[in-house]
Automatic annotation (TrEMBL):
<comment type="subunit">
    <text>Homotrimer.</text>
</comment>
<feature type="binding site">
    <location>
        <position position="434"/>
    </location>
    <ligand>
        <name>acetyl-CoA</name>
    </ligand>
</feature>
<feature type="domain" description="MobA-like NTP transferase">
    <location>
        <begin position="29"/>
        <end position="185"/>
    </location>
</feature>
<feature type="region of interest" description="Pyrophosphorylase">
    <location>
        <begin position="1"/>
        <end position="284"/>
    </location>
</feature>
<feature type="binding site">
    <location>
        <position position="282"/>
    </location>
    <ligand>
        <name>Mg(2+)</name>
    </ligand>
</feature>
<keyword id="KW-0460">Magnesium</keyword>
<keyword id="KW-0133">Cell shape</keyword>
<feature type="binding site">
    <location>
        <position position="193"/>
    </location>
    <ligand>
        <name>UDP-N-acetyl-alpha-D-glucosamine</name>
    </ligand>
</feature>
<feature type="active site" description="Proton acceptor">
    <location>
        <position position="417"/>
    </location>
</feature>
<keyword id="KW-0479">Metal-binding</keyword>
<comment type="similarity">
    <text>In the N-terminal section; belongs to the N-acetylglucosamine-1-phosphate uridyltransferase family.</text>
</comment>
<feature type="region of interest" description="Disordered">
    <location>
        <begin position="1"/>
        <end position="24"/>
    </location>
</feature>
<dbReference type="InterPro" id="IPR050065">
    <property type="entry name" value="GlmU-like"/>
</dbReference>
<dbReference type="InterPro" id="IPR025877">
    <property type="entry name" value="MobA-like_NTP_Trfase"/>
</dbReference>
<dbReference type="InterPro" id="IPR011004">
    <property type="entry name" value="Trimer_LpxA-like_sf"/>
</dbReference>
<feature type="binding site">
    <location>
        <position position="494"/>
    </location>
    <ligand>
        <name>acetyl-CoA</name>
    </ligand>
</feature>
<comment type="pathway">
    <text>Bacterial outer membrane biogenesis; LPS lipid A biosynthesis.</text>
</comment>
Length: 565
C-alpha cells in the first residue's frame, strides 16, 4: 500500500490506514452500489470498472474498512449476482443488501438500515430468553436496532480514502451532529446537488438536486459529494417519512436533512478543497481521468517516501503495490496487483509486473512477469517472460528471450539466452546453455525436469521430462536428454556427422557458395582435390571429432541425390 499520510488532511494518500483519533467505531458503513451506470456503455456494472488495480467498489470498500466499522453493508440491484460476488470477494464479512424496485438513494439506504437493524435484533435475541419477550405493537421488543454513527458513501468515488472518511467522522463526533456531509466546490456544478446553508451559522438547511433547484440555487458552487455520516436513530426516523415527490420520482436520501433539522439536530458540512477526492465516475472519460489522477497521487506519495520515478508520465503503479526506499522505476514501468519491490531494486524500462516479488538490489529489464519471485541481486531480461510459479534465487539470472513457468531456479544459477524452462527445478550455481527447452508436456500430463547444482548443460539441449541431471553433471551441445544423467557424468546424445565433399560445387553450380568453395578447394589451379594444408586440417578435425568423410564416386549413392536442385 502507499505510505500513510498525515492525519486530518483531505489530501491524504490513497489507500492509507488512518486512525480515528480515539472516536467510537462507526456502527456501519453503507456502500451504495445498486446503479446501472448507463453512461458507461458497458455490460460490466459501473462499480466493477477498475482503476489503480481495484474496482471502484474495491476502492469504496477498502476506504470503508479503514474506519474499522462494526458492519459494512453493500446495496446491490443491477447485475446483483456479479456485484454481490465481487463485494464478498473483497470482504467476506460484508452484508449484501438488495434494493427493491423503488428507486433512489433514500430507498437504498433504507433497505440497508432495515437489514442492519435485523442483524442487531438477532444479536440481541441471541442473548435473551425470547419466549419472555412480549410485543404489544408499540416499540420493537428487541430495541430500535443499530445504534451509533452510520457512514454512507457512493460506490463510484474511487479517490475517496479512509483518511478523508476519518476526518469526516471526527467532525461528526466533535460537533455532536445529527448529520455531517462531505462537500466541495466546483466552478461548474451542473448536475450536482447544491448545499444550501443557513445565513449566520453556516449550518446546512437543505441539499437540493439540480433538477429541483431554482435558478438562484443553481448559482451555488458548493455541491454534495454523496458522502455522509448520520446518527442511526436520526437516519431511521428520517427514512420513515421519505416520499418521492420530486422531478425524478425517486426517494432522495438528502431529504433526511429536513427531518433532522425539524428535530432540532445539527446538520453541518465539512468542505474539502480537493474536488477530485470526491469526484464520481459516470462514463469512460471520467474513469480515465480519475485513473490518471489516482496514479499521479500514488507516484507522488512513493517519491516522497524515497522511491525514484524517472518518468512519472509513463509509469503506472497500482494502489496495492508496495515499494521500499531506494527503489528505482525507469520509464515504461507498470506494477500491478500485489507486486512488492525491495530496497535497491531497479525495474524497467518497459517492464510490466503483476503480483511479483522483487528482492533487494535486483534488476528487471524489459520483462513481463506475473506471480513470480525474483531473489536478491538477481538479474532478469531484457525480453524475458516470467509466468506464474517462477522463483529465481539470489544472484540468479534469467536472460534475453527466456520464458519460465512453474520453475525454481536456485541461487547463482543462470538461464542466459533463448530458452524455455517450464515445470523445472534447477539447483544452485548451474548454467543452462542457450536454446534449451524442458520438454514438459506429453500431450496429456505435465512432467518435471530436475537439474542439480553446479551443473553445466550445453547449448540447444532438449530435456524430455521426466528427467534429471545430477549435481556437477555436464551435457553436450545439441543433445536430447531422455535419460537421467548421473552426478558428475557427461550426457551426450548426437547422430554421427557425415561430410559429402564437393556437394555444393556439383549441386549448386554457379552460385556464390559454389564459387567460394571452388576458390577454397583450389579449383582455379585445375585441381578437384583439397590442398595439402586443407587435407591436413580436415584429417585433424576428423580425428578430434570422430567425423567420417564420405567421398562418393558420384551423386547417385548419396542421401542428397534425391533432393531437388
Amino acid at each position: 500500500m502507499v505510505p500513510t499520510a498525515p492525519q486530518g488532511d483531505l489530501h491524504a494518500a490513497h489507500g492509507s490506514t488512518p486512525a480515528t483519533h480515539g472516536m467510537p467505531r462507526p456502527a456501519a458503513v453503507v456502500v451504495l452500489a445498486a446503479g446501472q451506470g448507463t453512461r458507461m456503455r458497458s455490460a460490466t456494472p459501473k462499480v466493477l470498472h477498475a482503476l489503480g488495480g481495484r474496482s471502484m467498489l474495491g476502492h469504496a470498500m477498502t476506504a470503508a474498512r479503514e474506519l474499522d466499522p462494526v458492519h459494512v453493508a453493500v446495496v446491490v440491484r443491477h447485475e446483483r449476482e456479479r456485484v454481490a460476488a465481487a463485494a464478498l470477494e473483497i470482504d467476506e464479512a460484508a452484508l449484501v443488501v438488495d434494493q427493491d424496485e423503488i428507486p433512489g438513494t433514500g430507498r437504498a439506504v433504507q433497505c440497508a438500515l432495515d437489514a442492519l437493524d435485523a442483524r442487531a435484533h438477532a444479536a440481541v435475541a441471541a442473548g435473551l430468553d425470547t419466549t419472555a419477550v412480549v410485543h404489544d405493537g408499540g416499540e420493537h421488543p428487541l430495541g430500535d436496532g443499530l445504534d451509533g454513527a452510520v457512514v454512507v458513501l457512493a460506490g463510484d468515488i474511487p479517490l475517496l480514502d479512509g483518511a478523508a472518511l476519518a476526518e469526516l467522522l471526527d467532525a461528526h463526533h466533535a460537533d455532536g451532529n445529527a448529520v455531517t456531509i462531505l462537500t466541495t466546490e466546483l466552478e461548474d456544478a451542473t448536475g450536482y446537488g447544491r448545499i444550501v446553508r443557513e445565513q449566520g451559522t453556516g449550518d446546512v438547511v437543505a441539499i437540493v438536486e439540480h433538477a429541483d433547484a431554482t435558478a438562484e440555487q443553481r448559482e451555488i458552487r458548493e455541491i454534495n459529494s454523496s458522502v455522509y455520516v448520520f446518527d442511526a436513530a436520526v437516519l431511521r426516523r428520517g427514512l420513515g417519512g421519505l416520499g418521492s415527490d420530486n422531478a425524478q420520482g425517486e426517494v432522495y436520501l438528502t431529504d433526511v436533512i429536513a427531518s433532522a433539522r425539524a428535530e432540532g439536530g445539527s446538520v453541518r458540512a465539512l468542505l474539502s478543497d480537493d474536488p477530485m477526492l470526491v469526484e464520481g465516475v459516470n462514463d469512460r472519460l471520467a474513469l480515465a481521468t480519475l485513473g490518471a489522477e489516482l496514479n499521479r497521487r500514488i507516484l507522488a506519495d512513493w517519491m516522497r517516501a524515497g522511491v525514484t520515478v524517472v518518468d512519472p508520465g509513463t509509469t503506472w503503479v497500482d494502489a496495492d503495490v508496495e515499494l521500499a526506499q531506494d527503489v528505482t522505476l525507469l520509464p515504461g514501468t507498470q506494477l500491478h496487483g500485489a507486486t512488492r519491490v525491495e530496497s535497491g531494486a531497479t525495474i524497467g524500462p518497459d517492464t510490466t509486473l503483476t503480483d511479483v516479488e522483487v528482492g533487494p538490489d535486483a534488476t528487471v529489464v524489459r520483462t513481463h512477469g506475473s506471480l513470480a519471485v525474483i531473489g536478491e541481486g538477481a538479474s532478469v531480461g531484457p525480453f524475458a517472460y516470467l509466468r506464474p510459479g517462477t522463483v529465481l534465487g539470489a544472484r540468479g539470472k534469467i536472460g534475453t528471450f527466456v520464458e519460465t513457468k512453474n520453475a525454481e531456479i536456485g541461487a547463482g544459477s543462470k538461464v542466459p539466452h533463448l530458452s524455455y524452462i517450464g515445470d523445472a527445478t534447477i539447483g544452485e550455481q548451474s548454467n543452462v546453455g542457450a536454446a534449451s527447452v524442458t520438454v514438459n508436456y506429453d500431450g496429456v500430463h505435465k512432467h518435471r525436469t530436475v537439474i542439480g547444482s553446479h551443473a553445466r548443460t550445453g547449448a540447444d539441449n532438449m530435456f524430455v521430462a521426466p528427467v534429471a541431471v545430477g549435481d556437477g553433471a555436464y551435457t553436450g551441445a545439441g543433445s536430447i536428454i531422455t535419460r537421467d544423467v548421473p552426478a558428475g557424468a557427461l550426457g551426450v546424445s548426437r547422430s554421427q556427422q557425415t561430410n559429402v565433399d564437393g556437394w555444393v560445387e556439383r549441386r549448386r553450380p554457379g552460385t556464390a557458395a559454389a564459387e567460394a568453395a571452388a576458390r577454397a578447394n583450389g579449383a582455379g589451379e585445375g585441381s578437384d582435390a583439397l590442398g595439402a594444408q586443407a587435407q591436413r586440417e580436415l584429417a585433424e578435425h576428423n580425428a578430434l571429432t570422430g567425423a567420417v568423410p564420405v567421398v562418393p564416386d558420384d551423386d547417385a549413392g548419396s542421401p542428397e541425390s534425391s533432393e531437388s536442385a
